[in-house]
Amino acid sequence: PLHKDIKERALYYVNNIEGNIGAYSPKRGYAFVQQQVAEFINKRDGVKDSNTDFIQLTSGSSDAAFIVLNALIRDRKDGIMIPIPQYPLYSSLIELLRGSQVPYYLDEDNKWQISFEELENCLLYTSDAADDLLCVDLGGRRIIKKKNSQLFRTLRHLTVLYQQH
Fold it and tell me: Could you write out the DSSP letters of every residue in the chain?
């Protein structure tokens, strides 16, 4: 026999799903499920402003990864940072969508965080650093040629912010 809580939860879903169960669902997911996700985020993160307008439900992580990467990648100049080791789905999707993989390594001795130097290397390689007027490619690493470029100013700003923390 099913526990009472399980029956109540199942009935809650059955009663809140519009139309037939098993039919197509709204493309952003059911509104009542989006609301549950927003409430979970509020509780988990200690906030009160999760907005269901910004919650997109998918049929799984693979679909979600495809949607996001497809929106981000235009061509090979769009680099996507991926941690090494990584889940093969990311590298496969980036390749399928004709983007560029930008691997980065996490520092095991520092609670698996990315170091600023590693982040800086990734930014030098990816940003519109793919613009050959700003950078020169040295075996997979892009080096800034113009110190007054927007990219250089952004990196300097990030360096200051990093050093303050």
Answer: ---HHHHHHHHHHHHHS-S-TTSPPPTT--HHHHHHHHHHHHHHHT-S---GGG----SSHHHHHHHHHHHH-SSTT-EEEEEES--HHHHHHHHHTT-EEEEEEEEGGGTTEEPHHHHHHHHHHHTGGG-TTTEEEETTEEEES-TTSHHHHHHHHHHHHHHH-
